[in-house]
Every structure is written in C-alpha cells, then in structure tokens.
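Is this the right way to post structure tokens for a design question? Let me know if I should format differently. Anyway, here goes:
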C-alpha cells in the first residue's frame, strides 16, 4: 500500500502515542502511514509538506481521513461539538480519578453502549485511553462498584483495540446464573400479624434496648441511615446493651477528629505530604529586569503579582531569554517559597519555566491573554488553600516537581491536569518538557 503521510510518535509508552495509534488503527489509516517512534516531537507530515503537531490535531485529521469519518466525528453538529469538547478536555477528564466522578460516569453509561448516539465515536476512544491507567490499578472491589464502566470498557478493548495497543485487562466477571429465581409461597391470612407480634418481644430479649428503639420511627430511620449508636439520638437513660452499642461510634468520632480538623479523612502516603493546591502559583508581570550584580547567568526581576509592591525574584534565564523579551512579560510565579538569597540578592519566589530534556531550551510558561495579574492558577479536583509558606524541610515542591510537565500540545499540566486560569490553560513554547 502506498504510504501517504509520515507519522512521528513519541516513546511507545506515551499516552499521546497510544491514543494516536488507536485512532489511526480504528480508522483503517495506519497502513497508509510511515510510522517512526521515539521522536522528539509528535508530528504528522503530509505529502504536500504540511506538518501537523499535537495529538488533538493529529487525531482529528486521522479520523476525518479514515474510512469511519462520519461515525468517529459525529453525524450532526451537536455530536461534532460534543466530540470536540471531549477531545480538547481529555487532559482534565477524571483527573484526579475520584469516586464521585466514576459514579457519575457509571450512571451515564447505565443505558448506553457508547457515549454518544448508537455508534463508536472519537469521544469513546479518548475516554478509553484516559481510563486505561486507572482501571489497570483499581482493586476488584472498586471495579465491582462500577459495572457499567467495566462493561463499556471491556466491549471497547475488544472492538476498538483488537491489536492490543493498550494492554488487555482481564476483568473478573460474575458467573452467569440461568436458574429462575425461587418465589416464596404466599403466607396464610393472619400468619403475618401473629408472626410480627411475637418478633419484637423476641428481639427485645436478645438485644436490650431494642424495643425502645423500635418504638420510635425517628430512631428507626436514623439507625437505617447512619448506623447503630448514632450521635443524633441521646436517650436520657440507656441500658447497658445500648451503651455498648454506642461505644464504637464514639471511637469513630475520635478517629475522625485525629485525621483532620475539618472532619475529612486525612490522605495517605505521598499525597498526605504534598498536594498541588499547597503551591501558591499566580499570574505576574515583569515590570523591571536587570542583570545580577554578582552572577552573569542570573536576572533580577521585579514582578507585579497584584500585591502592594512588586516582588523581587532572581531567575537563571540569561542564557535562554534575551533581556528585551523579559521586559513587561507575563509570567507564572510560585509565590510561597521561603525567601532565599541567590549570590547575595534576596529572591522571593520562582518564575516557572519549561525545559527540554537536555536543558538547552528553557522558556517561562505563559498565562493566556486576558489572565489577571495576581490570579491564582487552579487545578481541577484540588480546591484547598495554599500554604502561607512552604516548609523547606518537607520538600513539598520537590515531591510535586516530577509531575509538572508540558504535554504534546504545549499545555502546562500536573499529572495531566492543566494549569488553569479564568481565561484558559497556561501554555509553553516547549512541548513535552519539565516545568520548574
């Protein structure tokens, strides 16, 4: 078959590489491509010399050019718009993966085979790629709570990914039970009343205090929704049995208090020590820049961050950014680092920059046009307040830094979650880079 374009992919393990391959394969377009992996940049080079970059742009082109264009991109303007929305927001889909988000998605898939309409679209392929890393690591108990997601995913991994671009997940499915349900015979008249009259007395003998609870409908409702020993019910004199029942609830309350003052469970492991919302990252504008008096590689900037006075920050950008490009430039600043002297000049923050792997390209990341000076950068799913000042001993930023990157489209992300402002995401001139 004559190859009509050259596809340059990143490493085989890259999520962008896998998604582009999946779309090309499902579109019956992969055989028409000259594919090379481990490229420095994701590119599709067309026969006319035009170069397409970024996974979103390439996926849409492949879907449009393949044999399933109408199905993949939608058959009406409404579906087309929804598919475009899924594609553009895929970096923030279910990020972080939360039980609430999964429950919502599971309900949406209850009566659906595909996300939109009656055929598989690009939206399904995008969500398939987003969910794969999570489903691989989920315990079986969590998968059991999201049966509709599992059904949908299992169907797609056999229909859309026949070549195993994403490693197959072997879901443990419940055995098929073809036996008809056993129907209990109807009770004789009067038997139900006699039986129910004797049960409260028997229950009272077995569990002291049970009769008192059963006498109150309010208590019954509370116990069914909140469990035995609910703090909302405080009888003036409880039997010994009832006080023993209440003890576990008291202990649970104490444990809850120990976790955090707000009453929510304290996060475990790495997240307990470092969360992205602990960082105070804001939009700023350089109002003055000079060369460092004691170091040829450093600038000393005064940056307006919406505070009473501009903040002095030292940056090692002399080798990478000309001084004229630094003047009046909008930047993104980490503001709650402990002030420190750099070659005898105090620096009260850090200008965040994208850097390639060899560190011979470094450039400040860029807030979108219209972003307000002093506006805080947000990360979907992280709503906490930043620390007043990061504790250097806890190395909060150092623990988060490996997950601060730019993706193939040049969007600054934390674990695939975009750096967001009120006017859109923060971007960079260097894709697939580290941010620090």
């Amino acid at each position: 078959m004559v190859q009509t374009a050259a596809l340059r992919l990143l490493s085989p393990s890259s999520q962008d590489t896998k998604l582009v391959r999946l779309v090309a394969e499902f579109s019956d377009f992969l055989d028409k491509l000259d594919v090379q992996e481990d490229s420095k940049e994701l590119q599709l080079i067309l026969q006319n010399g035009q170069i397409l970059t970024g996974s979103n742009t390439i996926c849409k082109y492949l879907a449009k050019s393949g044999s399933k264009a109408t199905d993949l991109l939608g058959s009406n303007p409404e579906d087309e718009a929804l598919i475009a929305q899924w594609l553009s927001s895929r970096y923030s889909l279910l990020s972080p993966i939360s039980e609430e988000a999964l429950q919502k998605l599971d309900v949406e898939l209850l009566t659906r085979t595909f996300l939109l309409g009656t055929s598989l679209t690009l939206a399904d392929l995008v969500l398939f790629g987003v969910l794969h890393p999570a489903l691989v690591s989920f315990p079986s108990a969590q998968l059991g709570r999201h049966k509709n997601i599992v059904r949908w995913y299992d169907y797609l991994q056999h229909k859309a990914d026949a070549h195993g671009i994403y490693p197959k997940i072997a879901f443990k499915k419940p055995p098929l039970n073809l036996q008809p349900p056993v129907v209990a015979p109807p009770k004789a008249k009067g038997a139900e009343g006699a039986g129910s009259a004797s049960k409260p007395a028997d229950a009272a003998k077995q569990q002291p205090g049970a009769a008192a609870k059963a006498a109150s409908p309010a208590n019954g409702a509370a116990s069914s929704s909140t469990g035995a020993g609910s703090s909302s019910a405080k009888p003036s004199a409880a039997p010994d049995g009832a006080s023993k029942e209440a003890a576990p609830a008291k202990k649970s309350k104490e444990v809850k208090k120990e976790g955090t003052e707000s009453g929510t469970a304290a996060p475990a492991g790495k997240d307990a020590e470092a969360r992205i919302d602990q960082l105070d990252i804001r939009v700023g504008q350089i109002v003055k820049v000079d060369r460092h008096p004691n170091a040829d590689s450093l600038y000393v900037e005064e940056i307006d961050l919406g505070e009473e006075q501009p903040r002095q920050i030292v940056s090692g950008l002399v080798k990478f950014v000309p001084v004229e490009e630094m003047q009046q430039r909008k930047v993104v600043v980490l503001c709650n680092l402990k002030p420190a002297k750099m070659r005898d000049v105090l620096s009260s923050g850090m200008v965040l920059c994208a850097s390639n792997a060899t560190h011979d390209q470094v450039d400040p990341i860029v807030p979108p046009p219209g972003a307000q000076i002093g506006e805080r950068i947000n990360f979907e799913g992280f709503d906490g307040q930043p620390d007043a000042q990061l504790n250097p001993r806890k190395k909060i930023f150092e623990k988060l830094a490996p997950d601060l990157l730019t993706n193939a489209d040049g969007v600054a992300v934390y674990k695939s979650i975009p750096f967001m402002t009120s006017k859109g995401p923060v971007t960079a001139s260097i894709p697939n880079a580290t941010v620090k």
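Format looks fine. Someone answered above. Worth noting: The CA atoms of residues 128 and 153 lie 7 Å apart. Confidence is low (pLDDT under 50) at residues 191-271.
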